[in-house]
Amino acid sequence: MNIKSAKFLVSNTNVKDCPKTDKREFAFIGRSNVGKSSLINMLTGQNKLAKTSQTPGKTQLINHFEINDSWFIVDLPGYGYAKVSKTQREKFGQMISGYLLHRENLITTFVLVDSRLEPQKIDVEFMNWCGEKGIPFSIVFTKIDKLSSSELQKNLARYKKELLKFWEELPPVFTTSSESKFGREKLLNYIETLL
Q1: Across-strand partners of 141?
Q2: Contact yes or no for 73/44 (Cβ under 8 A)
Q3: Sign of the C-alpha dihedral, residues 32, 64, 50, 172?
Q4: CB 42: neighbour CB atoms within 10 A?
Q5: What would the pLDDT profile of 67-76 be if each residue is shown by its tens digit?
Q6: I need a labelling partner for 194 at 20 to 30 A (CA). Which of 28, 68, 92, 105 fits?
Q7: In what order do the strands lie in the sheet with 24-30?
Q8: CB-based contacts of 125: which residues, under 8 Å, 6+ apart?
Q9: Given this model, what pLDDT does residue 77 score?
Q10: 3-state class (DSSP) for residue 31
């Protein structure tokens, strides 16, 4: 898939205020600091489309980016960020679940996971919640350039083993690097099959 245009459209705190549209949406979510904004920028080929930050927890709204005037990438707040208050975390949780459960034109959600880490309880719990609620999702491992091929394979195997405790089969899995653009074509081609 060729991305000819990508533009920021609107930010909201509530699914009810999201754009009234029949265009298909693909949401991106993950723990804070997983490299979500960098991945969105890499996919769209625009370095400054999604705001990247050294400070985790930068995304605090539901952000809509219109792609090729025909579909949306939706950047959701990161989950599990410890440095915001409990009230703020609950607010984020309601915002995220409200969007995922009630946005009718949401096609699938890409759950981003840092490939360098062992399976994180919060990621596994979030994926299991998606499964229980019937929310289609794929797993996108980020930052694969930061570890060796054998370390990557070990970590992927650990994750698969952990998830197969709860799942009969795994959702689609992608490996990416925002630095080297690895995985870009595969991910965009997958989105294209769902448009």
Answers
A1: 113, 175
A2: yes
A3: positive
A4: 24
A5: 999 999 999 9
A6: 92
A7: 6-12, 62-67, 71-75, 24-30, 106-114, 137-142, 173-175
A8: none
A9: 85
A10: strand
180 close to 145: Cβ distance less than 8 angstroms: yes
Domain residue ranges in the chain: 6-190
Strand (E) or helix (H) holding 54: none
Integer Cα distance of 69 and 192 in angstroms: 14
Non-local CB neighbours of 18 within 8 Å, separated by 6+ positions: 10, 12, 62, 64, 99, 103
For residue 78, with 0-12 CB atoms within 10 Å meaning exposed, 13-18 middle and 19 or more buried, which class applies?
buried
CA dihedral 13, 94, 22, 24 (to 10 degrees): 100
Residue-wise pLDDT tens digits, 22-65:
999 999 999 988 999 999 999 999 988 987 655 444 557 899 99
- Name the nearest CA neighbour of 176 among 111, 121, 81: 111
Q: Tell how strand 62-67 and strand 6-12 pair up.
A: antiparallel
Overall average pLDDT of the 110-123 stretch: 95
Residue 78 confidence class, pLDDT cut points 50, 70, 90? confident
Fold designation for 6-190: Rossmann fold (3.40.50)
What is the structure's pLDDT at 81?
A: 58
